[in-house]
Design goal:
It is built from 5 helices and 7 strands; from the N terminus they run βαβααβαββββα. The chain is 43% helix and 16% strand. The chain is of the alpha/beta class and 167 residues long. The mean pLDDT is 90. The termini are far apart. The strands form 2 sheets. The chain has a 5-stranded parallel β-sheet. Strand 1 (3-8), helix 1 and strand 2 (27-29) form a beta-alpha-beta unit. It has one domain (3-162): Rossmann fold. It has helices at residues 11-22, 35-44, 46-57, 75-86, 138-162; strands at residues 3-8, 27-29, 62-67, 90-95, 118-119, 122-123, 130-131. It comes from Sulfitobacter sabulilitoris. This is Thoeris protein ThsB TIR-like domain-containing protein. Residues 6-100 form the Thoeris protein ThsB TIR-like domain.
Length: 167
């Protein structure tokens, strides 16, 4: 049975790449908001966005940050990472920059989204893993993610359990 996960990503840059990972079939992720729905949600209120995140994280065992060139440091990505950790979910990152976008391009690898996150005064820097898929082509990166993502998620869940009560 596939793990239920919540995908965290920079919508404008990586929605297409996220769909690619989501469609691998090895995970059960939340239904992704459309561009119109996400923009509508952001225009309502910060509380509405927080409520949407909370609702969509319910029942998920792991947060998978699909890290593109501009993912780190974004307000809602930071919120999702912190919330997932506080709620006891596994947290893992995967660089998706080698996966082609809808226009056929790859992007630059982004910096770690975990280094500036603190929970109860403790830094998450170096705790959740940020994986670099093998290969240099989009197909090689896809194959690497497809082969390893299940193990990466299981490891993230084990790592989070090691920190229960510690942070």
């Amino acid at each position: 049975m596939a793990r239920k996960v919540f995908f965290s990503f920079h919508f404008d840059n990586d929605y297409w790449r996220t769909q690619t990972v989501r469609n691998m079939g090895s995970l059960d992720g939340q239904t992704l908001a459309t561009a119109n729905k996400w923009e509508e949600l952001k225009r309502t209120s910060d509380q509405a966005v927080r409520d949407w995140i909370t609702s969509n994280m319910k029942g998920k065992s792991c947060l998978v940050v699909l890290n593109g060139s501009s993912t780190a440091g974004r307000k809602w990505i930071n919120y999702e990472i912190k919330k997932a950790w506080e709620d006891g979910r596994g947290v893992v990152g995967i660089h998706v920059n080698k996966l082609k976008h809808s226009d056929g391009t790859q992007s630059q690898r982004g910096s770690t989204p975990f280094s500036n996150i603190t929970v109860n005064g403790y830094s998450l820097a170096g705790i959740p893993k940020l994986w670099i898929p093998g290969g240099s082509t989009s197909q090689e990166a896809y194959d690497s993610i497809s082969k390893h993502i299940g193990g990466w998620i299981e490891e993230a869940i084990r790592i989070r359990k090691q920190y229960t009560g510690a942070l």
